Here is the input.
Amino acid sequence: MIVEQIWTGNAYRNFNYLIVCPDSGEALAIDPLDHEKCLSRAKDKGWDITQILNTHEHGDHTGGNRVMIAATGAKLLAHANARDKIPGIDRGLGAGDVIQVGKTVELEALDTPGHTMSHVCLLSHTDQPALFCGDTLFNAGAGNCHSGGHPVELYQTFAGQLAELPDDTQIYPGHDYIVNNLRFTLDREPDNARAAELLAEIEGQDPDAALVTSLALEKEVNTFFRLHNPSVIAQLRETFPDLPAKPEARAVFLKLRELRNSW
Ligand SMILES: [Zn+2]
Ligand SMILES: [Zn+2]
Here is the structure.
């Protein structure tokens, strides 16, 4: 499997992706907002885009569909429940559905509500797994819930699905927000040395060659995976004195998500 991460350079800081079968050159484009960059990258490399996948219905993920389909004839895939929100879906996806790309690549659809209620992530069936997580999980952060999502469902997706994936899973999010997110982690957990070190390392990184994190690293630096951490809890109790000394993970997640909205 070849993964081509395409930095759009736009104000929303979107990442687009091409996932390619190295044997056949067939490719699936994930959220190809910057259709010009996606099409020219595929042309340069000799790849044939046969499928487009939208992780969810927001315009900064679907905005390239029309031009991409006109140029390639690719089939459009998205969450089955997104049919009334994304025009022209050819294949509606549910949890466990497998998407074949060329001869060698298999991607499994995960039903991951929270950022919106019709959001899919893709998990590759490869020796080292890769997760394409749209706006659900960001490097060192979590998606917001104010355009059609729900924080409780986002928590359930994090705790019940994402946290259970293998530690060596590579994380490919829909946006480059890592610097701000690490600052939020450090605001919540000032003694997180790994987050401080990583921030120093990647601040000012070239988004065309962005760091790819693993789930293991996310568990060290992403505050939304650190719900039992004593510093995170102590810091939260200063803002929310009603939070018990040994709070449920879910309560910690919801308070963090709420704080991040206005941070
Ligand atoms: Zn979104
Ligand atoms: Zn987005």
